[in-house]
Design goal:
By secondary structure, the chain is mostly helical. It has a single domain (3-143), classed as Up-down Bundle (Ferritin), CATH 1.20.1260.10. The longest helix has 29 residues, at 89-117. The chain has helices at residues 3-29, 35-62, 71-77, 89-117, 120-143. It is globular, with a radius of gyration of 15 Å. The mean pLDDT is 97. 79% of the residues lie in helices and 0% in strands. Bound molecules: fe (ii) ion (FE2). Fe (ii) ion binds next to loops.
Length: 146
């Protein structure tokens, strides 16, 4: 597989780590009357992200690359910014929707490169991720009344 594919997958891995930590922060810091539903929902998101992160890193290894693995690299590369000290429910849900959009955009880049390289398995993996995240985005947007 091409170096471009590995580069795009590593970009996704960095984005995912910051997203993961943002969902943990949301789970811990959420306040207000909708605490219980969102506290549980954010836990679902980071649990799912953990599996996705491992799958992406191991796909990189499978196709002959090496996955980035340090926090310094993740913070340097990620287009998703880390969110600090946010406890407002609507702000947190908006943050999740924005983060998911950034993930989907990078997954589509990976998918395009995978198609160029004839790597159907990576393409399939990206289709799976986008499918789930688009649905999650729809649900959070509905929660926001959009
Ligand atoms: Fe917890």
């Amino acid at each position: 597989m091409s170096n471009s594919l590995i580069t795009e997958l590593n970009q996704l891995l960095s984005n995912f780590h910051v997203y993961y930590q943002n969902t943990r922060g949301a789970h811990w810091n959420i306040k207000g009357p909708r605490f219980f539903e969102l506290h549980a929902k954010f836990e679902e998101l980071y649990t799912e992200a953990l599996t996705n992160i491992d799958d992406i890193a191991e796909r990189i290894l499978t196709i002959g690359g090496s996955p980035d693995h340090t926090l310094e690299t993740y913070l340097e590369k990620s287009v998703i910014k880390s969110v600090k000290n946010e406890s407002n429910d609507e702000s947190l849900v908006k943050m999740i929707v924005e983060n998911l959009s950034a993930l989907i955009s990078q997954e589509n880049k990976v998918k395009e490169q995978a198609v160029k390289d004839g790597d159907s398995e990576t393409e399939d993996m990206m289709i799976g991720l986008v499918n789930v995240q688009e649905k999650t985005k729809w649900m959070f947007n509905s929660w926001l009344g959009k």
